[in-house]
Write a structure and sequence with these properties.
47% of the residues lie in helices and 15% in strands. It is α/β, with parallel strands linked by helices and 278 residues long. Strand 2, helix 2 and strand 3 form a beta-alpha-beta unit.
Length: 278
C-alpha cells in the first residue's frame, strides 16, 4: 500500500474523486491542480501520505517541479494518472484555431510532457503504471466535438505505442475511456465556438445542446470510476484500454461493427492495392 500516485487535474471530476479514494484506501498521492487552494481539502487529513502541488500541464517548468517534488517527498512514482483536460463544442468548420490549439496543449501535449518527465523515474525503478484518461470519444467520433475527438484519438495512439515500448521495462499503460460522467467536462470546462453556421444546426448544434442539457445528470458516477481505476492498478494483468460506463461499452461495440463492415465489404479492393503475387 506504499505506492505513490501522481494525479493531474484534481480540482474537480475524476481527478478529485480519484485522489480522495486513493488516499482513503491507504496509498500515497501527489494531488495537483492549477490552483492548490482548490485541493487542500483533499489532503488535509493525510499529512504523511499526501501533498498538494501547483501544476498547469501546459507549463513545462511546473511539470518538472511536480515530478521533482514527488521524488523529494516519496522517493518514487508508481502511478501517473494523466487526467487534466478540457472540452470544446463546435462543428469542424466552426472551430476556432486558438481554442483548438489550447485544447491540444492541455489534452495531448501536456499529457505527453508528463509522460516524458515521469518515464526516467519509472525506467530506473523498472516498474510503474501510466493511466491516460481518454474518452469513448477517442474511439468513436461525434458531431460538435470533432477536434476534441482528435485530441483523444491522439492520446489513444500515443498510449498504444507507449505500451509496446515500455512493457519490457516493467511499465504498464492503460487508456481509460469514459462515456458521460457527472464531471465539469460538459459544463464550465468546455467552451463553445463563437462561430455558428446554420447548416450544422441539426448535427453539431443539436449534439451540443443534448450534451449541455444533461450536464450534471449523466449516468456515470465519478466515485465509482475512481474505484474502477484503482482496481485496474491493483490487477496483475491490467487492460490496455478500460471503457467506463454502459454508453462507452455500447459505443465501443458499435465502432467495432462499423470497422468490421467496412473492412469486410471492401476486402477485395483493399487487398487489390498490393502488387500482384508472383
Amino acid at each position: 500500500m506504499n505506492k505513490v500516485w501522481l494525479i493531474t487535474g484534481c480540482s474537480t471530476g475524476f481527478g478529485r474523486e480519484l485522489a480522495k479514494e486513493v488516499l482513503a484506501v491507504g496509498y500515497n498521492a501527489v494531488v495537483t491542480a492549477r490552483n492548490p487552494a482548490d485541493i487542500m481539502d483533499i489532503i488535509e487529513d493525510y499529512p504523511e501520505t499526501a501533498m498538494a502541488v501547483k501544476l498547469d500541464v501546459t507549463v513545462a517548468a511546473e511539470i518538472k517541479a511536480a515530478v521533482s517534488s514527488t521524488i523529494e517527498k516519496f522517493g518514487r512514482i508508481d502511478v501517473l494518472v494523466n487526467n487534466a483536460g478540457i472540452g470544446y463544442f463546435a462543428a469542424v468548420e466552426e472551430s476556432e484555431e486558438e481554442q483548438v490549439r489550447r485544447m491540444f496543449e492541455i489534452n495531448f501535449f501536456g499529457l505527453a510532457k508528463m509522460i516524458q518527465e515521469v518515464l526516467p523515474v519509472m525506467r530506473h525503478q523498472r516498474s510503474g503504471h501510466i493511466l491516460n484518461i481518454s474518452s469513448i470519444g477517442g474511439l468513436r467520433s461525434f458531431p460538435a466535438v470533432g477536434f476534441y475527438n482528435a485530441t483523444k484519438y491522439a492520446v489513444d495512439g500515443l498510449s498504444e505505442a507507449l505500451a509496446k515500448e515500455t512493457a519490457p521495462l516493467g511499465i504498464k499503460v492503460t487508456i481509460i475511456a469514459p462515456s458521460g460522467f457527472r464531471t465539469d467536462w460538459a459544463g464550465r470546462s468546455a467552451e463553445d465556438s463563437h462561430i455558428k453556421i446554420a447548416d450544422y444546426a441539426d448535427t453539431a448544434g443539436k449534439n451540443t445542446g443534448d450534451i449541455r442539457a444533461i450536464s450534471g445528470n449523466q449516468p456515470g458516477d465519478p466515485a465509482r470510476a475512481a474505484k474502477a481505476i484503482i482496481k485496474v492498478v491493483e490487477a496483475e494483468h491490467p487492460p490496455m484500454r478500460l471503457l467506463l460506463g454502459a454508453a462507452a461499452l455500447k459505443g465501443g461495440r458499435l465502432k467495432l461493427e462499423e470497422l468490421r463492415h467496412d473492412f469486410d465489404t471492401w476486402e477485395a479492393t483493399t487487398i487489390g492495392a498490393d502488387f500482384p503475387k508472383l
